[in-house]
């Protein structure tokens, strides 16, 4: 029988690292506890384009204490001025009517997942090839789908970066996309 439980360093799914001296003070605590963090872009001014986010990521990495393995996962603050060519949307929607043995089955989770995909496609600007709907699937299928959508997003990001490099040769900073 196993008597120990090893917990890997988790991800922080919502962190405000701020900037300047506050960043330098907060980052070491976050980086020691978490392997990765989804970094919120609402600085003053907010990070509203790829160049701004890339520069912010550089400041985060520069403030990271030596010897700590930490990956900032960058986000963009979307406004009416955000260039749509810099943004690509992906969604994995999961609906499963069957729960665990001791749980009551659901009636509409699977059909609601399909309806949500329709809404995201029609109103949310998601392209059909960037919407994955899983209904009544197992955890292995869900993981494979997450990996597939991650790979697709990397392909889209590469195309966007190539287009931006053509528009402003030598001015592009590459954002590192991590594998799941």
Task: Please tell me about this protein's structure.
The chain has 4 helices and 5 strands, in the order βαβαββαβα. It has helices at 20-33, 50-63, 109-123, 139-167; strands at 11-15, 36-39, 71-74, 91-95, 131-135. The strands form 2 sheets. Strands 1-2-3 form a 3-stranded parallel sheet. It has a two-stranded parallel sheet with strand order 4-5. β2, α2 and β3 (71-74) form a beta-alpha-beta unit.
Measured as a percent range, the helix fraction is 40-55%
Q: How are helices and strands ordered from N to C?
A: EHEHEEHEH
Characterize the main sheet. Answer: 3 strands, parallel
Strand line-up across the major sheet: 1-2-3
Radius of gyration from CA coordinates: 19 Å
- Please report the total strand number as a whole number: 5
Number of helices: 4
The pLDDT mean sits at 80
> Which blocks of ≥5 consecutive residues have pLDDT under 50?
171-180
State the shape. globular
Structural class: alpha/beta
Distance between the termini: 30 Å
Tell me the strand percentage band.
5-15%
Describe the secondary structure blueprint for this structure.
Blueprint lengths: L10 E5 L4 H14 L2 E4 L10 H14 L7 E4 L16 E5 L13 H15 L7 E5 L3 H29 L13
